[in-house]
Specification:
- With 167 residues, the protein is mostly helical.
- The chain has one domain.
- Helix content is 73%, strand content 8%.
- It contains four helices and two strands.
- Strands 1-2 form a two-stranded antiparallel ribbon.
- Helix 2 runs parallel beside helix 4.
């Protein structure tokens, strides 16, 4: 809620950063302690000549958690710098659109990460149906794609903030 209210937007970014840090920590600890992580692999038949492609869920979780943590870290640094200097987050309409994109994708990727964590903990990967495999594949692509976009946009915001506060 705080993330989408302009008056307390900075607290929303701070809260999201804390949430993302906790999620990243738990994912990392869980993956290092899991002895069966080599069995938790999504096997998808891409081409009959190539056979099965094996995608380890642990690597997708780790990549998503690290990318989102970096994006949240860049965003909280840039937004807190602007907030300390100007006491408000004032951006152009294009930059406000980028910031809105970041807000929505932060929420979407966090929800997708929770879906993938629940799937990692509960599913038997030896007996998955085609529908569940497709949903998990879409979740993984969404996590990696949107997390990468978050890092790119938050890096742009960080460069923009540095140019705003230099002079």
């Amino acid at each position: 809620m705080c993330l989408f209210t302009p008056e307390i937007e900075i607290y929303g970014f701070g809260s999201f950063f804390v949430l993302q840090a906790i999620l990243s920590f738990f994912v990392f600890v869980d993956l290092t302690q899991d002895e069966r992580r080599s069995n938790k692999v999504l096997s998808v038949a891409v081409d009959p000549r190539l056979g099965l492609v094996h995608i380890p869920l642990s690597m997708m979780l780790l990549a998503g958690a690290m990318l989102e943590f970096v994006a949240a870290f860049f965003t909280i640094i840039s937004m807190s710098t602007v907030y300390k200097r100007f006491r408000a987050i004032q951006l152009s309409s294009d930059d406000q659109t980028r910031l809105s994109f970041l807000k929505y994708t932060f929420v979407i990727v966090t929800a997708l990460m929770f879906v993938l964590v629940v799937a990692y903990w509960t599913l038997d990967f030896g007996a998955l149906s085609g529908t569940i495999k497709m949903v998990l594949l879409m979740v993984m692509v969404g996590i990696v794609g949107l997390s990468t976009a978050d890092v790119i946009y938050s890096n742009r915001m960080l460069r923009l903030i540095n140019t705003m506060t230099d002079g």
